[in-house]
Structures are given as C-alpha cells and as structure tokens.
Amino acid sequence: MILVTGGAGFIGANFVLDWLAQSQEPVLNLDKLTYAGNLENLAALANDPRHVFVQGDIGDAELVAGLLAQYQPRAVLNFAAESHVDRSIQGPEDFIQTNVVGTMRLLQAVRHYWQSLAQEPQAAFRFLHVSTDEVYGSLSKTDPAFVETNKLEPNSPYSASKAASDHLVRAWHHTYGLPVLTTNCSNNYGPFHFPEKLIPLMIVNALAGKPLPVYGDGLQVRDWLYVKDHCSAIRRVLEAGRVGEIYNVGGWNEKPNIEIVHTVCALLDELRPKPDGSSYQTQISYVQDRPGHDRRYAIDASKIERELGWKPSETFDTGIRKTVQWYLAHPDWVAHVQSGAYREWVQKNYQL
C-alpha cells in the first residue's frame, strides 16, 4: 500500500485515479477536504476496496502516526498543500500552517514510522514530496530555464511556504537519513482543476458569458504540463529516482498567459460555438495585475529524461483539447464546485 496525502485535490486525485487504473496496489488517501479537496473527483472509486479514504490533516501528528502504524505503507507521497498564489496573498497564515508546519509534522511522523521498520522494508521505503517550480523565483526573457541546482528565490507567500517545505524535506534526509525524493513541477492543467486557476476559469467563465479576466498585459510566461503526464513522472520517480535527489518535471511548453486564453477561446469556438457566431475572445477583460506577479517560469526537464527516461506524452495542443473537452462533458462537476463562496472569491480577487 502507498499513502497519498492531498489525494482529493486536483493533482492528487488524478494521481490516485491513474495509479489504480494501472496497479492493484491499494492507496490510503488522506485529505483535509478544504475548498480544493473534492470527493467528487474520486467518485469513480466509490466502491473500490483498493481506495481507502480518510478525512484528516497532515498536521495531525497523532492521526498520521496511527494511520502509518495501521496500514504500514511502503511509500508516502505528499501532495497536500495550499497552492493558490492569490489566496496566499490574501491570507498567508493558512499556507504557513499547511505547507510548513504540516509538512514538518508529517515528516516527523513518517520518520518515526520508518525508523521502526525492519531492515528490508526500511531500505525500500520512500517519502516523495511534490513541489513547484515557483520556489525558484522568476526568470527574465533570456534566462535559461530552471534546473534542479537553481537556488530557491520564492516571491509569493505560497512559493515561500513551498520552498520552506522543500528545505525541510532535504533536512530530514540529511539529518535523519529519511529516504526522500522531491519533484518540482511546472503549471499543471487537465481534468478536475478547481476553477479559479487560469485554464478552468477561462473555460467556465466563457461558457457562462462572463468576462475572461487576464492579469496585467497577459504576457506572463509559464511552462504548461498536462496533469496525467505529471502523474506518470511521479510514478517513475517513485519507482527509480535516486534517494535525496530533486527532479524537475515540465511539459516543454512555455507560453504567455494571453496565448493560453486565446487557445481556449478558439477551442470553444470550435467545440461549443456561440449562437450568435461571435468568438469567446470578445469576453477577454484585462484586470489589474496581482502584487509581485512573477514574469516567467520555465522548467528544464532534461534530468528526469536523462536519468529516468521520462518525458511528457502530451503536447500542449493535445492536452488543452482534452482539457476543454473534459469540462464540456462534465457540467455537473463544475456546477457543484461553484459554491457561493467560490463566486464571492472570484469576484473579490479579480474585482469584476
């Protein structure tokens, strides 16, 4: 069995679904079910005995210790995190509690469990920490892409909290010998993405006839990674990654935000054309940029390809088409996550 934390969120749920589609090995799924954790993401596993779900906090040391003792997982994969930059600007303390304090408490519980194991399972055990490219800071247009040896220069409360968690994972390896692996990924997109992030927000607002809010000039550049490619990379790192190493996971898809928005609009024009024949691009609305908005992220994913033979299978064109098609096919999922609190958040954040 493996223990997945944050397995009802966007990336975590995709990972759990993909894992159980390819393996008979059970998953113990621990998720706090905050705003972004959604059990509907895992509806396909409702009657699957291989999926054991527990609602709880990685910061609850007693709960985590009890689960580790009861289920004896061979690996812990930590997806649990507060992850939305805008929310971290409005309320940074939640990010410190989950991403820093929570990770520390999880590491402590896992360390004590690992130290109690017999020699063979102890040698095989892994703690895999899922992190982000945002810990590296921002790049200029001409800077080379982030590599694993870049120093950490986080610029938002979110990325600072993730950088702190990365440092803690490194420290627990070097101080206590805990066998850790860390992945730093670029911007994910795909099914089950909570619709306050760029791509799902554009899809949902476009279909609802609402403005498509674009920060500043829209020329902020990100590398885009289809979530199922990210999941396959994590499986590969867990399987064969070198203990103590960091692996950057990217999609080799650097694009400015406004190009992403135009691509989404063009796909919707094709797949769900408006009755009046106009383009969804007419709904684009430029709004005030967010504080400290990093200009460019870019991932050099050559290490994971060189050492582990992994590279993304989706291009941006294939991945974004699959994503738009998924949202068009799942209006009920979208409607259920759009609670009143969610609508209030978008209105407040984008000042529409």
Could you provide a short overview of the structure?
This protein is α/β, with parallel strands linked by helices.
Could you characterize what this model shows?
The chain is built from 13 helices and twelve strands. The chain is α/β, with parallel strands linked by helices. It has a domain at 2-189 and 224-252 and 292-315: 3-Layer(aba) Sandwich (Rossmann fold), CATH 3.40.50. The chain has a seven-stranded parallel sheet with strand order 3-2-1-4-5-6-10, with helices on both faces. Strand 5 (126-132), helix 6 and strand 6 form a beta-alpha-beta unit. Helix 1 crosses helix 8 (227-240), helix 2 packs parallel to helix 4 and helix 4 (92-116) runs parallel beside helix 6 (157-176). The radius of gyration is 20 Å and the shape is globular. The mean pLDDT is 94.
Order of helices and strands: EHEEHEHHHEHEEHEEHEEHEHHHH
* Beta-strand fraction estimate: 15-25%
User: What is the count of DSSP helices, taking H or I runs of 4+ residues?
Assistant: 13
Q: What ranges have pLDDT less than 50 throughout 5 or more consecutive residues?
A: none
CATH architecture of the domain at 2-189 and 224-252 and 292-315: 3-Layer(aba) Sandwich
Alpha-carbon distance between the termini?
Answer: 46 Å
Structural class: alpha/beta
CATH homologous superfamily heading of the domain at 2-189 and 224-252 and 292-315:
NAD(P)-binding Rossmann-like Domain
Average pLDDT metric:
94
CATH topology of the domain at 2-189 and 224-252 and 292-315: Rossmann fold
**Largest beta sheet: strand ordering:** 3-2-1-4-5-6-10
**Shape, per Cα inertia axes:** globular
Assembly status: single chain
What is the total tally of β strands? 12
Sheet bearing the most strands, described?
A: 7 strands, parallel
Tell me roughly what share of residues is in helical segments. 40-55%
The Cα radius of gyration reads 20 Å
Give the CATH class of the domain at 2-189 and 224-252 and 292-315: Alpha Beta
